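Because showing beats explaining, we let one protein speak, sequence and backbone structure tokens together, and leave readers to judge.
___
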Amino acid sequence: MKLPAKPLLIAAGIGATLLGLGLFLGGRPEVAVASIRRDLALDAVPAAVKVSPEFQVTISSDVLGLVRKSNLKIGQVVKEGDVLFEIDTSKYELTLSQLEQQLTNIREQFALDLDQRNALDRRKEDLALLTTRAKAGEYPQFELKRRQEELTMFVESQGKDRLVRDQQIADLEHSIKLIRRDISDCVVRAPAAGTVTELFAQPGEVVALRAPLVRLFSQALLVEARINEEDFSGIKPGLDASVRFLAYGPELYPAKVVKVLPNADPLNQQYRAYLEVTIPAELLIPGLSGEASLIRNRRAGALIAPRAALKDGAVFVIEGGVAKRRPVTVGFRSLSAVEILSGVAENAEVAVTQLESLREGIRVQVSR
């Protein structure tokens, strides 16, 4: 059933009155305020921060064999050179013994092979005698030439046999060298100090060649700051910075830029700088993320407002419990503050919370 227009107007008026009364009696937004003050303004470039190990490495097996021994545990800290795994060497030692015996046999055969040397000596003596007889006319020259050619062919044959034997010796020596390296590789050592983060093999398992054994994270950590291309100008080693990690709330930690990479990441065109952060060692752990301000310039005696007070190029000044929107011109920016060049005066109180709820002329309750 359609209601008459007059009752509807009366109902709307009552609603508006109740709403106004509610606001008057306590519906006003409660805001925290801060004073505009003179202080040091910082031209600080924002950056996303991530803490990661200086390196992470997956150590693989260079041999095939049975894992004989390992006492590793997840989270264990190892030093450079520590033994991580011992792989059974028995089959490699057996192969080594066989190869060494073959090498010994060939060398002994070569050393004791007198028949070849004696045969060559006899042929040379015979040729020398025939040469003397040929000069005296007692032996045909064509026969002498044939004997000389036979000696040359015999010497060449002996040379070929020697080359084959030398190659056999070289091949055996190379195989022995490889087997000895395999035996050495059966003891897997840590290439650097680090923390065990994953284990892929246990004692009693047979591991394949190139199979992963363990993953290590280095104890040395890198604090990487990623900077947008438009903010990269002027970023260089030696700049001061401040870092806030999400895990530790609003706490700011002083830092310094120690390294800047000259090339941008082709995927997102962000540049990378590395920071040295002054923070207790036990708090700096892999996986932390946060934000940083890299300080390019400073200006003393500037008007400073909390960064939280700025919204859409304006601040809300609170005067007599009333919010008044004031557009401002901003200069330097840092992680927590902005420099005000114009728009508000020193000592003005500006809202730093509930900005989404504020409108020009709205009455507020100030939280002290």
User: Anything to note?
Assistant: Helices lie at 5-27, 90-112, 114-135, 141-185. The first strand starts at residue 30 and ends at 35.
